[in-house]
């Protein structure tokens, strides 16, 4: 481990405020958010080689800011560093915020000079169709929960471009470790509307056997690790998954999603540090919708020597382009990458929240209409001649009909047996667990009026 830490001496350079040209301090030259005068290219600094090479390159550097003896270095166990006679503290933040990469303006017009990953008609229409499907699914299932038909739900309304744009940029072999607002990634991979309905209604057909809270999806077949409620626990797990893929020389990476609030958890920092030291092929995608007041996620990657980019999360093409590039870097260069996607959560945090208590209806409506990622992408697809009003009407009608049918089937499907609470943990259940199962059955038989009648005992 000591050797690994010495190889990460580049982190000292980053924290000491040296030039971003350092091989371990790689920040993308991005496009200015809401700017009409944009650079024509999205450039990436050359990738580093093995960590020992990068370390040697950094060790040979001296402090470029020193006025005297700037060619002299001090040799410490932690690495060689230049020195200066000037006492200077590292500023707590940069004078300018990291700009935000975007391809489409708010009206869906391609920004002049944008350098983005081209998409075919087939991929573009599929992306748009899935964004609409996600929006309709959220609306229908949210209303079903408000009717008391199941216990809990949260939506991705306003964040559809992050879900679908990133999903389209990944391979089916990549492992997804979601937070809880990424059902679009699972939808893109082939999870059916019926499967979504089965999960939220916790019936016998649910892949999780009804054990999880609603919207805590998972699919072994689709490499989508089951969601867990605690914030950010999936991040260090993703690094472990990525490191195993690296050891097995797989042409794949791990992709971990989190919200901006998750970056304030210790697990976030442990994960970035773990990933940087082990040089794990993992892409961290942060949906920064601002409500956790965790400003400036992209700069947190730099502190750990992780290549990072800030992207307009309401721009599906920008998300697609950035995530595809991040995935390629993670796999080919054996490195972690951090993507911060700026967006806005139009829906309530969940069905347990009333967001009108802390924001106005006018604000919600503005982001729902004027800044909608779906409207923006639709405008671009229509300009290509790939979509029409008739197709729009038919799609929305079809998706709503499928969802209503899926809900009816899910509601009528039998619940998992009570014995499923005790299975799939031990090969041979221990005596105390068997005793608990026996006691539970006895209590249900004694007080049947206090338990659901549709759960087989």
TrEMBL record:
Top-level taxon of the source organism: Eukaryota
Name used for this protein in its record: 2-oxoisovalerate dehydrogenase subunit alpha 1
């Amino acid at each position: 481990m000591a050797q690994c830490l010495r190889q990460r001496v580049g982190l000292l350079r980053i924290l000491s405020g040296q030039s971003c040209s350092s091989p371990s301090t790689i920040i993308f030259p991005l496009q200015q958010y809401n700017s009409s005068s944009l650079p024509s290219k999205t450039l990436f600094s050359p990738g580093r080689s093995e960590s020992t090479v990068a370390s040697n390159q950094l060790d040979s550097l001296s402090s470029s800011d020193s006025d005297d003896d700037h060619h002299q270095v001090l040799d410490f166990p932690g690495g060689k560093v230049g020195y200066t006679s000037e006492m200077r503290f590292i500023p707590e933040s940069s004078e300018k915020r990291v700009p935000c990469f975007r391809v489409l303006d708010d009206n869906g017009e391609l920004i002049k000079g944008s350098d983005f990953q081209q998409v075919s008609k087939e991929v573009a229409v599929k992306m748009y169709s899935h964004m609409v499907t996600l929006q309709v699914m959220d609306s229908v299932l949210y209303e079903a929960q408000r009717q008391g038909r199941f216990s809990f739900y949260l939506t991705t309304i306003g964040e559809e471009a992050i879900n679908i744009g990133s999903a389209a940029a990944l391979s089916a072999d990549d492992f997804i470790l979601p937070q809880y607002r990424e059902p679009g990634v699972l939808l893109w991979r082939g999870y059916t509307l019926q499967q979504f309905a089965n999960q939220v209604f916790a019936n016998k057909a649910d892949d999780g056997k009804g054990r999880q809270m609603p919207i805590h999806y998972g699919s072994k077949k689709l490499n989508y690790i089951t969601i867990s409620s605690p914030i950010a626990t999936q991040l260090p797990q993703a690094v472990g998954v990525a490191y195993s893929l690296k050891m097995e020389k797989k042409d794949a990476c791990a992709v971990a999603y989190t919200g901006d609030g998750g970056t304030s958890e210790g697990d976030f920092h442990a994960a970035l540090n773990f990933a940087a030291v082990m040089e794990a092929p993992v892409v961290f995608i942060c949906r920064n919708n601002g409500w956790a007041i965790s400003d400036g996620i992209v700069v947190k990657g730099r502190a750990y020597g992780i290549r990072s980019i800030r992207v307009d999360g309401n721009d599906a093409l920008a998300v697609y382009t950035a995530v595809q590039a991040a995935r390629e870097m993670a796999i080919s260069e054996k490195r972690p990458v951090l993507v911060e996607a700026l967006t806005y959560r139009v829906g309530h945090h969940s069905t347990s929240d009333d967001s009108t208590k802390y924001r106005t209806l006018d604000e919600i409506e503005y982001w729902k209409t004027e800044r909608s990622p779906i409207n923006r992408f639709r405008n671009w697809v229509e300009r290509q001649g790939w979509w029409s009003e008739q197709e729009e009407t038919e799609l929305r009608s079809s998706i709503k009909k499928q969802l209503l049918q899926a809900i009816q089937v899910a509601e009528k499907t039998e619940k998992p047996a009570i014995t499923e609470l005790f299975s799939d943990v031990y090969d041979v259940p221990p005596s105390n667990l068997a005793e608990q199962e026996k006691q539970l059955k006895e209590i249900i038989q004694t007080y049947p009026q206090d338990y659901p009648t549709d759960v087989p005992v």
